[in-house]
Amino acid sequence: MLARSRLIESRLTPNAISITGLVGNIIAAVLIVENHFVLGGVAFILGSLCDMMDGRYSRMSGKGSPFGAFLDSTLDRVSEGIVLTAVAAYFAQQQDDLATGATVLTVVGSFSVSYTRARAEALGVECKVGIASRAVRVVILSIGLVFAAGELVPDLDLLEPAIYVMAALTIFTTFQRVIHVRKQLRALVTQADL
Question: Is residue 7 part of a domain?
């Protein structure tokens, strides 16, 4: 409790945590491009933890702002996009067209998952449904990176399967959210007609 109290009273801002997360993910991307997957996975995990903690810290400390919330969401998308771009570059280097395409699809799916929630909330509909939340995507990609290219465990490469799973789950979650929002908006129209 004392450590948390000191942290809240410190000069640390949620925006500084967001930017630290971005830097961690940039480091992860560089390491991935250099085929240092375990280190890249660790950097990705640490950067993603910052991405996930900044909002909570903002609420706990009372240091949040509308711009901070906007910055947090924006940097989360940029961070995820940078790391997935590095993964796509790795697969392209390996001349693995299917995995490269699946990684691009994962980027589109990840952004769609986030966009559908943001757009739904702008319409007044809560939209947290779906399998592939940010936390789930981070866990899957972390496992894929740490166990990539047999670097940690010989003959074990989970990066490509992780990307295929992420591609499928993000597209599925996008459809889940579209259907959810459609139902919620129809219910709102029906209530307004009564």
Answer: no
Model pTM score: 0.89
CATH code: domain of residue 37: 1.20.120.1760
Shortest CA distance to 57 belongs to which of 43, 42, 69, 70?
69
Q: Whole-angstrom Cα distance, residue 95 to residue 99?
A: 9
- Gap between the Cα atoms of 34 and 99, Å rounded: 18
Is residue 4 domain-resident?
A: no
Question: Looking at the 3D structure of the chain, how many domains does it have?
Answer: 1
Torsions phi, psi for 149 (to 5 deg): 55, 25
Are residues 79 and 22 in contact, defined by beta-carbon separation less than 8 angstroms?
Answer: yes
- The answer to whether residue 5 is domain-embedded is no
Cα(52)–Cα(72) distance, integer angstroms:
9
Range of the domain at 41: 12-193
Contact call for residues 106 and 170 (beta carbons, < 8 A): yes
Give a yes or no: residue 97 inside a domain. Answer: yes
Q: For the segment 143-191, what is each residue's pLDDT rounded down to a tens digit?
A: 999 999 999 999 999 999 999 999 999 999 999 999 999 999 999 888 7
Q: Other C-beta atoms within 10 Å of 143: how many? A: 16
Pairwise CA distance, residues 101 & 9, whole Å: 46
